[in-house]
Amino acid sequence: MAPYIPPRKEEVERYVEEVKKYNSQASLQYLPTDDELRVIIKNCPVCVEGEPTERVEVSGYRNLERIETNTVRGGMALVVAEGLALKAPKIKKTVDKVHMEGWDWLDIIISGASKGKSDDEEEKDKKPGVKPKDKYIRDLIGGRPVFSYPMRAGGFRLRYGRSRNTGFAAAGVQSGHAAHPRQLPCRRHPDEGGAAGQGGRRGAGRHHRRTDGKTD
What we know:
This protein is mainly alpha-helical and 216 residues long. It folds into two domains: 9-117, no CATH class; 133-216, no CATH class.
């Protein structure tokens, strides 16, 4: 098999626009920065393609020779954003284990060096501590409840724990501590089974169900 020919400049920018366009339609779990997307598309030794899935088209970089459609390709966006970008540490661990060449660029994604930062931002990032992230507020759909703003004092606190009714793959929310009973009348009803939630930090999706009268 012949080696994959690196993408052209207009193709790289097309991928950047397309991933962002898909996120506006389906809300990705993690949206990489423009620079991260460029690093992935320019350096990935495998061509990430896909069938058109959405009803919207890109506005720029249309009718390209090596991209058959102008319609947004959801599968491509998911592989690039939630696969290569979000799972970069796991992918790097696997390719190093099998001695696969051509994936050294993953270190750039893992370290975050692809993000252009000013001197003030770099100085601020050197200070230890966890900083608030408001992405889940910015991506919020109108009408959805918000338990707390990012790291707000007195906001929603999730007390992790394991018990007989949660098993090993779930975290319990104890009534009276993290999920106060006063929340129920404020929300008008308890969480329904399978209700999805989003936290302030990157990670897997959160789904809720009720066990023994408690919500977890």
